[in-house]
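Hey, can you fold this one?
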Amino acid sequence: MKPLHYQRGFGNHFATEAQAGALPQGQNSPQEVAFGLYAEQLSGSAFTAPRKQNFRSWLYRIRPSVLHHTFFPYPADNWISSTEQLAPANPTQMRWDPLPYPDKQVDFIDGMITYACHGDLRQHTGAGAMLYAINHSMTNRFFYNTDGELLIVPQEGSLHLRTELGLLDIAPGEIAVIPRGIKFQVRLHGERARGYVCENYGHPFQLPDLGPIGANGLANPRDFLTPVACFEDVDAEFTLLTKFQGKFWQAKILHSPLNVVAWHGNYVPYKYDLSLFNTINTVSFDHPDPSIFTVLTSPTTVPGTANIDFVIFPPRWMVAEHTFRPPYFHRNIMSEFMGLIHGQYDAKETGFVPGGASLHNSMTAHGPDNQAFKQASKAELKPTYYKDTLAFMFESYYVWQQTEFALNTPILQQDYLDCWQSLEKHFKP
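Sure. Predicted structure:
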């Protein structure tokens, strides 16, 4: 696999050109753009949004985006983002086995299955929690999502993301974010791939404030990578897919839309290697809140309250004294959709496996299973390095509403609650 070139930084105003002289100098939309290119602005925020929240990029492309045919409905029944026709949210703790691979050829769009969602995409609030299992590359069709940005978390198999603004390669242990409106393809590097996706309808993901942590820690801006300009000039019949107000549409397009020769701006796709996350933890006793593991956050208008937090539990030292080290039994207002990329999660010795998922909704009790409780209660508390583990959460202030698939699929573990039933009463007055 040939290594790709990237630009470093998060939230930067980037400038890149695949052909020298393609970027205009001094103005964004000159009367004539070099090489006969078309100038096109892509805005990801209101024009009058504050500067630090104003997202836009100028694209200089071979053909403008208006060149396509009429859109017609496209069936994508498993990718759901409206809660209106779903059953009421179920408070029961739920856990699923890994999503099986399909028997027929399935690409990234058709292989996406929503497990839960919340909010109202028409009001730009909420999110969807999805899994994919695919065995086919997108070769003759392209996609853009008007409803939200996509946070892609591979669990098995590497992906080659071909976007309007350039190329991204991601493997398990890395993530990528494709902002709403940006056209892209997903191709496989191997025979198949599986992973998780968060479709964020709310405010775009940003780095969390560090507060008392100070200037350094968690995800460093310089470790985020954005593609350089890379274009293709191909005339052929392709299909352009879009997701618009919760429904899917398709149109014929007679050229590749990945025809941006140069661009500049801060509305960009990006990737991040989760192994570069600078983990913060206690060096005395008890647990800091899991917010110390937040990689990216989509804020709401309420300070400190997230539409979505993307939280990871990476390899790390555990040194707390006089402390029950696994996650304690808890109930919280935030709702947790969790996945496992590799290894073992310290609060669940069995049953929660890589590629699987779990859901604990608002105020629903959860915590370590009986086996983990017994071991942690009697363990010698010497410094321990948790090496082979990488779990994550899509955590939200809003309640996750399960889809029909999630409630009725054979991979839903009907015996999940059994992991707590053998917890004994130890109280001796």
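Helices lie at 370-378, 404-408, 418-421. Let me know if you want another pass with a different chain boundary.
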